[in-house]
Design a protein that fits this description.
By secondary structure, the protein is mostly helical. Helices cover about 80% and strands about 0% of the residues.
Length: about 100
């Protein structure tokens, strides 16, 4: 991967990280986080396809959890946000390794 693509992917990962932190402090931003994550095309292109599959699965569940109260939803929004943070951490490690 070129260093320019790595830098762009890392920049997009930082954008995603910021959106994740905002959602952790304000759960009402879950839909915005999902949209932001889906817009990070260079980030997703820089990662193996499995990363995209996992991310999209987490985002689908996060969007579902945002539609219901915590008690009536089978997905814990906090657990989903924790899983997204783990995804971000692993993606960052892989991108730094590729750089």
């Amino acid at each position: 991967m070129s260093s320019e693509m790595s830098l762009s992917a890392l920049t997009q990962l930082n954008t995603l990280q910021q959106a994740l932190q905002q959602t952790a402090t304000n759960p009402g931003h879950a839909t915005r986080l999902s949209a932001t994550a889906r817009e990070q095309a260079q980030l997703l292109a820089a990662l193996p396809p499995r990363y995209t599959e996992v991310l999209l699965g987490l985002l689908d569940r996060l969007e579902s959890s945002a539609l219901f109260s915590e008690e009536s939803c089978s997905f814990s929004q906090k657990d989903l946000l924790d899983s997204l943070q783990m995804w971000v951490d692993k993606a960052r490690g892989l991108l730094l390794q590729q750089a």
